[in-house]
Design a protein that fits this description.
The radius of gyration is 17 Å and the shape is globular. The protein has a single domain, classed as Rossmann fold, CATH 3.40.50.720. Strands 3-2-1-4-5-6-7 form a 7-stranded parallel beta sheet, with helices on both faces. By secondary structure, it is α/β, with parallel strands linked by helices. Bound molecules: NADP nicotinamide-adenine-dinucleotide phosphate.
Length: about 230
Amino acid sequence: MVVIGGSSGIGLACVQSAHGAGASVVIAGRSAEKLSQARQRIGEDVTTASVDVAKESEVSALFGEIPRVDHLIVTAAETVSASIAEAEEREVRSTIDIRLWGGFRAAKYAAPRMDGGSITFVSGTSSQRPYEGSAFVSASCGAIEAFSRALALELAPTRVNVIQAGIIDTPLLDDFYGEKREKVVRELANTLPAGRIGRPEDIADAAMFLMRNGFVTGTVLTIDGGKLLA
Ligand SMILES: NC(=O)c1ccc[n+]([C@@H]2O[C@H](COP(=O)([O-])OP(=O)(O)OC[C@H]3O[C@@H](n4cnc5c(N)ncnc54)[C@H](OP(=O)(O)O)[C@@H]3O)[C@@H](O)[C@H]2O)c1
């Protein structure tokens, strides 16, 4: 199993669950330090690879080293919020580039090494319920959802699904909310039917389901504590 983005947050929780269930896991991400910390946390038998999904040559080299892939999870993303009045194309392009084109690169080079199994991407509820400044984030999430439905046909019998996540307690929230994090999280939790924000393990549970259930493909699975209803 390969998890691109497996060195932190949701990806790391997916690695932990799959490793706990006996999978042999390759974790990919850019930062060597984060990869090494993840390996220390999960176990020495985990393989790590320094890969930037923005770079085709690095993604191709990653899968060139792996003869067989049973499951692929891609959580890598960049989320730059900006109004279109303020956005400079060069600053917001990465939001689309990493999630959609990174997903494309991962699927393109993993698929020839897969025979069945599954690919799981991660999007967010902003594809359906945008917030101010989310135009590019929402577009990237909507794009990977549409992309994966088409891939589910193209790559069958390999199954392709997306987890559409609500607000999840990961290091991403530090970047997003900065020092207001705790206050914002408390307020957000109070608006959700679940009464709390998500834990990375909530998404890892869904990822395990999507890997195990051979009848689920072309699906966008919302795991959001009821955010879309709130
Ligand atoms: N947390 C939330 O509330 C939330 C809500 C909705 C959707 N999501 C989505 O869930 C996914 C995972 O988010 P998270 O909260 O787990 O974030 P996170 O804790 O920041 O983890 C992101 C992971 O992706 C890797 N990554 C980032 N850019 C990469 C690149 N160019 N190439 C390879 N790896 C890269 C990071 O490692 P390096 O930085 O070392 O590369 C890290 O391992 C994202 O797609 C995010 O948009 C999260």
